[in-house]
Amino acid sequence: MSAPDLPPTDDIRVLLVDDQDLFREGVRVIVDAQPGMRVVGTAADGLEAISVAEETAPDVVLMDLRMPEMDGVEATRQLLAPERAARRQQVLRVVVLTTFDLDDRAAAAIRYGASGFLLKDTTPQQLAEAIRTVATGNAVIAPQDLTRLLDRTFDAPRTPPPPYLALTDKEREIFAAVARGLSNTEVAGVVHLSESTVKTHVGAILRKLGLRDRVQIVVFAHEHGLLS
Protein backbone atom coordinates (compact mmCIF):
# COMPACT_ATOMS: atom_id res chain seq x y z
CA MET A 1 0.00 0.00 0.00
CA SER A 2 1.17 3.48 -0.79
CA ALA A 3 -0.62 6.56 0.52
CA PRO A 4 1.55 9.67 0.27
CA ASP A 5 0.41 13.01 1.60
CA LEU A 6 -2.12 14.90 -0.49
CA PRO A 7 -0.57 17.55 -2.71
CA PRO A 8 -1.36 21.16 -1.76
CA THR A 9 -2.79 21.87 -5.22
CA ASP A 10 -6.04 21.63 -7.13
CA ASP A 11 -4.81 18.57 -9.03
CA ILE A 12 -7.26 15.74 -9.66
CA ARG A 13 -6.43 13.18 -6.96
CA VAL A 14 -6.30 9.61 -8.26
CA LEU A 15 -6.33 6.30 -6.40
CA LEU A 16 -5.07 3.22 -8.29
CA VAL A 17 -6.50 -0.18 -7.34
CA ASP A 18 -5.07 -3.31 -8.97
CA ASP A 19 -3.53 -6.54 -7.68
CA GLN A 20 -0.64 -6.43 -10.17
CA ASP A 21 2.29 -4.36 -8.92
CA LEU A 22 3.74 -3.77 -12.37
CA PHE A 23 0.43 -2.53 -13.77
CA ARG A 24 -0.11 -0.16 -10.83
CA GLU A 25 3.35 1.34 -11.18
CA GLY A 26 2.93 1.75 -14.92
CA VAL A 27 -0.35 3.60 -14.48
CA ARG A 28 1.16 5.72 -11.70
CA VAL A 29 3.91 6.90 -14.04
CA ILE A 30 1.34 7.77 -16.72
CA VAL A 31 -0.95 9.66 -14.35
CA ASP A 32 1.80 11.57 -12.56
CA ALA A 33 3.19 12.69 -15.92
CA GLN A 34 -0.10 14.42 -16.78
CA PRO A 35 -0.63 18.08 -15.92
CA GLY A 36 -3.36 18.67 -13.37
CA MET A 37 -3.53 15.20 -11.83
CA ARG A 38 -1.59 13.14 -9.31
CA VAL A 39 -1.69 9.67 -7.79
CA VAL A 40 -2.37 10.01 -4.07
CA GLY A 41 -2.51 6.31 -3.20
CA THR A 42 -2.51 2.73 -4.42
CA ALA A 43 -4.15 -0.49 -3.25
CA ALA A 44 -3.80 -4.16 -4.20
CA ASP A 45 -7.41 -5.21 -3.56
CA GLY A 46 -10.85 -3.80 -2.89
CA LEU A 47 -10.63 -4.06 0.88
CA GLU A 48 -7.40 -2.09 0.92
CA ALA A 49 -8.89 0.40 -1.54
CA ILE A 50 -11.63 1.35 0.91
CA SER A 51 -9.08 2.04 3.64
CA VAL A 52 -6.74 4.03 1.38
CA ALA A 53 -9.66 6.04 -0.03
CA GLU A 54 -10.58 7.12 3.49
CA GLU A 55 -6.99 8.24 4.11
CA THR A 56 -6.31 10.02 0.83
CA ALA A 57 -9.71 11.46 -0.25
CA PRO A 58 -9.26 10.83 -4.00
CA ASP A 59 -11.42 12.46 -6.66
CA VAL A 60 -11.17 9.50 -9.04
CA VAL A 61 -10.58 5.80 -8.35
CA LEU A 62 -9.26 3.56 -11.12
CA MET A 63 -10.65 0.21 -9.99
CA ASP A 64 -9.64 -3.22 -11.24
CA LEU A 65 -12.53 -5.69 -11.30
CA ARG A 66 -10.86 -9.02 -10.58
CA MET A 67 -8.87 -8.98 -7.33
CA PRO A 68 -8.41 -11.18 -4.24
CA GLU A 69 -9.92 -10.39 -0.82
CA MET A 70 -12.58 -8.09 -2.31
CA ASP A 71 -13.24 -7.57 -6.00
CA GLY A 72 -13.77 -4.23 -7.71
CA VAL A 73 -17.54 -4.60 -7.94
CA GLU A 74 -18.01 -4.92 -4.17
CA ALA A 75 -15.41 -2.23 -3.50
CA THR A 76 -17.27 0.12 -5.85
CA ARG A 77 -20.56 -0.65 -4.13
CA GLN A 78 -19.11 0.13 -0.72
CA LEU A 79 -17.20 3.24 -1.78
CA LEU A 80 -20.23 4.76 -3.49
CA ALA A 81 -22.83 3.68 -0.94
CA PRO A 82 -25.04 6.66 0.00
CA GLU A 83 -24.16 6.54 3.69
CA ARG A 84 -20.43 6.63 2.95
CA ALA A 85 -20.80 9.31 0.27
CA ALA A 86 -22.72 11.51 2.71
CA ARG A 87 -19.68 11.62 5.02
CA ARG A 88 -17.33 12.86 2.30
CA GLN A 89 -16.55 16.48 1.62
CA GLN A 90 -15.96 15.83 -2.08
CA VAL A 91 -17.59 13.76 -4.81
CA LEU A 92 -15.87 10.45 -5.53
CA ARG A 93 -15.90 8.97 -9.04
CA VAL A 94 -14.98 5.39 -9.94
CA VAL A 95 -13.78 4.11 -13.31
CA VAL A 96 -13.49 0.34 -13.52
CA LEU A 97 -10.65 -1.30 -15.42
CA THR A 98 -11.19 -4.56 -17.28
CA THR A 99 -9.50 -6.77 -19.85
CA PHE A 100 -12.88 -7.83 -21.25
CA ASP A 101 -15.03 -5.57 -23.41
CA LEU A 102 -18.67 -5.36 -22.24
CA ASP A 103 -17.86 -7.26 -19.05
CA ASP A 104 -20.86 -8.26 -16.92
CA ARG A 105 -18.88 -7.23 -13.84
CA ALA A 106 -18.42 -3.79 -15.37
CA ALA A 107 -22.18 -3.59 -15.78
CA ALA A 108 -22.65 -4.45 -12.11
CA ALA A 109 -20.13 -1.80 -11.05
CA ILE A 110 -21.90 0.80 -13.18
CA ARG A 111 -25.20 -0.12 -11.52
CA TYR A 112 -23.51 0.61 -8.19
CA GLY A 113 -22.45 4.05 -9.39
CA ALA A 114 -19.22 3.71 -11.39
CA SER A 115 -18.86 6.41 -14.04
CA GLY A 116 -17.83 3.98 -16.76
CA PHE A 117 -15.15 1.50 -17.68
CA LEU A 118 -11.86 1.37 -19.54
CA LEU A 119 -10.05 -1.54 -21.11
CA LYS A 120 -6.62 -2.12 -19.61
CA ASP A 121 -4.96 -1.71 -22.98
CA THR A 122 -6.21 1.87 -23.36
CA THR A 123 -3.64 4.45 -24.40
CA PRO A 124 -2.06 6.90 -21.91
CA GLN A 125 -3.88 9.76 -23.64
CA GLN A 126 -7.25 7.99 -23.39
CA LEU A 127 -6.60 7.22 -19.72
CA ALA A 128 -5.80 10.85 -18.93
CA GLU A 129 -8.85 12.06 -20.84
CA ALA A 130 -11.05 9.58 -19.00
CA ILE A 131 -9.84 10.78 -15.61
CA ARG A 132 -10.52 14.40 -16.54
CA THR A 133 -13.93 13.47 -17.96
CA VAL A 134 -15.22 11.69 -14.86
CA ALA A 135 -13.71 14.32 -12.55
CA THR A 136 -16.09 16.83 -14.15
CA GLY A 137 -19.09 14.54 -13.62
CA ASN A 138 -19.36 12.96 -17.05
CA ALA A 139 -19.19 9.32 -18.17
CA VAL A 140 -16.46 7.39 -19.95
CA ILE A 141 -18.57 4.83 -21.74
CA ALA A 142 -20.29 5.14 -25.08
CA PRO A 143 -24.11 5.17 -24.77
CA GLN A 144 -24.43 2.21 -27.14
CA ASP A 145 -21.97 0.17 -25.08
CA LEU A 146 -23.78 1.03 -21.86
CA THR A 147 -27.10 0.01 -23.40
CA ARG A 148 -25.64 -3.31 -24.57
CA LEU A 149 -24.25 -3.93 -21.08
CA LEU A 150 -27.45 -3.08 -19.25
CA ASP A 151 -29.77 -4.90 -21.64
CA ARG A 152 -28.16 -8.13 -20.41
CA THR A 153 -28.61 -7.41 -16.70
CA PHE A 154 -32.26 -6.37 -16.27
CA ASP A 155 -35.49 -8.31 -16.48
CA ALA A 156 -38.83 -7.22 -17.92
CA PRO A 157 -40.03 -3.61 -17.40
CA ARG A 158 -41.33 -2.69 -13.98
CA THR A 159 -43.78 -0.09 -12.73
CA PRO A 160 -42.15 3.38 -12.73
CA PRO A 161 -41.23 4.44 -9.17
CA PRO A 162 -42.93 7.43 -7.48
CA PRO A 163 -39.95 9.83 -7.90
CA TYR A 164 -40.10 9.34 -11.67
CA LEU A 165 -43.86 9.88 -11.71
CA ALA A 166 -43.27 13.16 -9.87
CA LEU A 167 -41.19 14.55 -12.76
CA THR A 168 -42.82 17.18 -14.94
CA ASP A 169 -43.70 16.34 -18.55
CA LYS A 170 -40.72 18.33 -19.78
CA GLU A 171 -38.40 16.61 -17.31
CA ARG A 172 -39.62 13.20 -18.47
CA GLU A 173 -39.00 14.20 -22.08
CA ILE A 174 -35.45 15.26 -21.21
CA PHE A 175 -34.97 12.15 -19.05
CA ALA A 176 -35.85 9.96 -22.04
CA ALA A 177 -33.40 11.78 -24.29
CA VAL A 178 -30.56 11.54 -21.76
CA ALA A 179 -31.37 7.86 -21.16
CA ARG A 180 -30.86 7.27 -24.89
CA GLY A 181 -27.36 8.70 -24.54
CA LEU A 182 -27.91 12.15 -26.02
CA SER A 183 -25.63 15.03 -24.97
CA ASN A 184 -27.05 18.31 -23.65
CA THR A 185 -26.57 19.86 -27.08
CA GLU A 186 -28.45 17.02 -28.75
CA VAL A 187 -31.20 17.08 -26.11
CA ALA A 188 -31.61 20.84 -26.66
CA GLY A 189 -32.30 20.20 -30.35
CA VAL A 190 -34.87 17.51 -29.56
CA VAL A 191 -36.84 19.42 -26.91
CA HIS A 192 -36.34 22.88 -28.47
CA LEU A 193 -34.73 24.51 -25.45
CA SER A 194 -31.39 26.21 -24.91
CA GLU A 195 -28.49 24.05 -23.81
CA SER A 196 -28.25 25.93 -20.50
CA THR A 197 -31.94 25.28 -19.81
CA VAL A 198 -31.46 21.59 -20.57
CA LYS A 199 -28.53 21.50 -18.16
CA THR A 200 -30.73 23.01 -15.45
CA HIS A 201 -33.44 20.42 -16.11
CA VAL A 202 -30.92 17.57 -15.97
CA GLY A 203 -29.71 18.83 -12.60
CA ALA A 204 -33.29 18.89 -11.34
CA ILE A 205 -33.90 15.35 -12.61
CA LEU A 206 -30.80 14.07 -10.84
CA ARG A 207 -31.89 15.69 -7.57
CA LYS A 208 -35.46 14.44 -7.76
CA LEU A 209 -34.43 10.87 -8.56
CA GLY A 210 -31.51 10.86 -6.12
CA LEU A 211 -29.04 10.01 -8.88
CA ARG A 212 -25.35 10.86 -9.12
CA ASP A 213 -24.81 11.58 -12.81
CA ARG A 214 -25.99 10.98 -16.38
CA VAL A 215 -24.78 7.37 -16.31
CA GLN A 216 -27.16 6.73 -13.45
CA ILE A 217 -30.03 8.13 -15.50
CA VAL A 218 -29.34 5.47 -18.13
CA VAL A 219 -29.13 2.77 -15.45
CA PHE A 220 -32.35 4.00 -13.81
CA ALA A 221 -34.17 3.93 -17.16
CA HIS A 222 -33.10 0.34 -17.83
CA GLU A 223 -33.77 -0.82 -14.30
CA HIS A 224 -37.34 0.45 -14.35
CA GLY A 225 -38.17 -0.35 -17.96
CA LEU A 226 -38.51 3.31 -19.00
CA LEU A 227 -36.93 2.97 -22.44
CA SER A 228 -39.28 2.30 -25.32
From TrEMBL:
Residues 13-135 form the Response regulatory domain. SMART domains: HTH_LUXR, REC. The modification 4-aspartylphosphate is found at residue 64. Residues 160-225 form the HTH luxR-type domain. One of its GO terms (biological process) is phosphorelay signal transduction system. GO terms for molecular function: DNA binding. Keywords: DNA-binding, Phosphoprotein, Transcription, Transcription regulation. SUPFAM superfamilies: CheY-like. The keyword DNA-binding applies. Signal peptide: none annotated. CDD domains: LuxR_C_like, REC_NarL-like. InterPro entries: CheY-like_superfamily, NreC/VraR/RcsB-like_REC, Sig_transdc_resp-reg_receiver, Tscrpt_reg_LuxR_C, WalR-like. This is Response regulator transcription factor. It comes from Nocardioides humilatus.
